[in-house]
Amino acid sequence: MGEDTTCVFLKKMSSQKTTENGAQNAFFYLTSFFSLSFVAFGVGNLLFSMVHFYFPESTNLYSQDFSQDSLKFGIAALLIASPVYFFTTKTLYRFLAEKKLSYESGIRRWLTYVVLFITIATVLGDLVTTLYSFLGGELTIRFLLKSLIILGISGGIFLFYFLDVHTNDSAFQKMKNRVFTGIFWTVVLLPLFWAFTILENPQITRMKKIDENTIALLQSLQYTVEAYAENEKELPKDIESIASPQYGSFSLQDIKDKNISYTPTSEREYTLCANFERDNQQDNDTSYFGNGNWSHSAGNFCFSLSVKKDNIGKEFIPTPQ
What we know:
It is a single chain. This protein is mainly alpha-helical and 321 residues long. The chain is built from eight helices and three strands, in the order ααααααααβββ. The chain has helices spanning 2-20, 22-54, 68-97, 106-135, 141-166, 170-198, 202-232, 252-257, and strands at 261-264, 269-276, 299-306. It has a three-stranded antiparallel beta sheet, covered by helices on one side. Helix 2 packs antiparallel against helix 5, helix 2 (22-54) packs across helix 6 and helix 3 packs antiparallel against helix 6. It starts with a helix and ends in a 15-residue tail after the last strand.
């Protein structure tokens, strides 16, 4: 009887120890799953960037093309989140091996099933979207590849955690973890290596941002000239004529700093000129989106624009009812 009492006491102590570590276990599981989401998004971003890079679709106005910003987010996500996920997951399996965490732990099972639900929802949404696009005649090689990427990432995560929560055999868990560890680092490192081969250097990025700010200011001027022409039935004579809250909000100092000039060339046409840091005419990066064609060479470049209103200089005559 004394031995039975001792066994019961030890079981209670073991159960109490697991319960006391519940907050710690929940922390590691939540950190693991949160970092996993960044890894999944990071891998997805880099693989999507591959698709956009090798299969450009410039003929589609609404299609997404290759973007250095998306590439940089994927790199940052993988460099930060991958080691965190690997460390926390390895720690959890060490807890399981040392009996500090039970395979039947409520925290472990609940959080794992939440991840399984999210992956199932992602796969279902991906399959529905793919079938809808196919029936609508919009299925392209790009869309098909991206659907396969989502299916592959979600399916891999689902398979790993499905096996994890339905198998308590330690030998099988060790074998599964070795296999998936190799797959995990292959899926992370190969896209990372590719991304670094086409990643632009920070100096180019800075020059592009300067030019994008210049284009944004030129666009503001374009809209302001449109507003002025609509109200006054003529083009403004100079930039000072439209430097008022009535037509637009921009700083004359910014105009001077960027050496921007405005010159009317006809009744409806004008030019906007500015200095640019680099030539963007061969760029396949569409991280900057704007209305119209703003391709330019390095140095001082002029854009030929026109007012869209066809009643410039004419008296407005209402249409007979």
